[in-house]
Design brief:
By secondary structure, the chain is an all-alpha fold. Helices cover about 85% and strands about 0% of the residues. It has nine helices and no strands. It has helices at about 5-25, 25-65, 75-120, 125-135, 140-170, 170-205, 210-220, 225-245, 260-305. The protein is globular, with a radius of gyration of 24 Å.
């Protein structure tokens, strides 16, 4: 178990080492960064302009329905139109959610591969990076699926305990205080559990492991280092939360261009923070390997030494 001083030095060391990854191959990392910003900006703009007419139409019809006669044909047309717009809007949002998730998975995998190559002093071209990402995408996808299930299970567990307490407490102030307290505690625990989840994703990219196996390997090598990863997660969560608050400025009515500019700035900033987070977790992965790697590798070496050198017959 690392001491507090060692933990602080390790945390600061990761923050110092991470920017160096970018400087080791500026061309590659700049190309990857531009790809991240370009794709997410295009998705944001396409989502904004494709859903804006439906949102305006939904708001207009929602205001007209209460003042319309329920027996009139106008009321029926408004209600049918509202349901149709709502179906199209939900379909668009689901489509964008799937596309953005798949793109984010690809870009996160590419960032980890590039960071690992730069950390190890290897030369890598942008085309090679994309091909390598496509080849190894299956393992991160399975690990992401398991992590998503764990995250959903954790969220349901929190809601299952929160909702009964909210129903029991009738005082608005006490109810709000309880909601904030449990929200903060749940977020802290989520970030602590997320250390293994994020490390498992990195392992699934860089090693021939995925799913439960990657989660088990992450739990094995992170022993004594989990507080260090927890600090990285807290920094990322706080940074992202601050940036998300800027989205409130998108409701400014005085300008039609300003909300788009603010949205692009926020989306691109979060994208850069997430890239830095994955780069930092790649460095963190190697620190965990250095701390626990000798024992893990020696165990693997012992296991491999016991395997007979003679060919195995009747292999399926």
């Amino acid at each position: 178990m690392l001491m507090a001083s060692d933990m602080t030095l390790g945390f600061l060391g990761i923050l110092r080492e991470t920017p160096k990854i970018f400087s080791k191959n500026v061309r590659l990392m700049a190309s990857l960064t531009l790809l991240n910003l370009l794709l997410l900006s295009l998705f944001f703009l396409s989502n904004f302009f494709s859903t804006k007419p439906f949102i305006s139409d939904l708001v207009t019809k929602a205001f007209l329905i209460p003042v319309s006669d329920p027996k009139s044909t106008e009321f029926a047309y408004l209600l049918i139109g509202l349901m149709q717009d709502l179906r199209v809007f939900i379909g668009l949002e689901w489509t964008y959610a799937i596309v953005i998730t798949a793109t984010s998975l690809f870009l996160s995998t590419a960032t980890i591969i590039a960071s690992a190559a730069m950390h190890g002093g290897e030369s890598l071209f942008f085309k090679e990076l994309l091909l390598s990402t496509l080849k190894s995408l299956k393992r991160p996808f399975f690990t992401w699926f398991y992590i998503t299930l764990l995250g959903l299970g954790y969220s349901f567990l929190v809601l299952e305990n929160l909702l009964p307490m909210m129903l029991i407490i009738q005082q608005p102030i006490a109810s709000k205080a309880l909601l904030i307290t449990i929200g903060i505690l749940a977020s802290i625990l989520y970030n602590y559990l997320g250390v293994i989840w994020a490390l498992a994703f990195v392992i699934s990219v860089l090693e021939e492991k995925c799913g439960i196996e990657a989660l088990g390997k992450a739990a094995q090598i992170v022993k004594g280092m989990q507080l260090l990863g927890f600090g990285l997660n807290i920094v990322f969560t706080v940074s992202s939360s601050i940036l998300f608050q800027a989205l409130r400025l998108m409701t400014i009515k005085q300008s039609t261009v300003l909300p788009i500019v603010i949205g692009l700035l926020v989306v691109n900033s979060i994208c850069l923070v997430k890239m830095f987070w994955w780069m930092a977790h790649t460095v963190f992965y190697y620190q965990c390997k250095e701390t626990q790697g000798e024992e893990v590798e020696s165990q693997d070496r012992i296991l491999y030494s016991k395997v007979p050198t003679a060919p195995i017959l009747n292999e399926p």
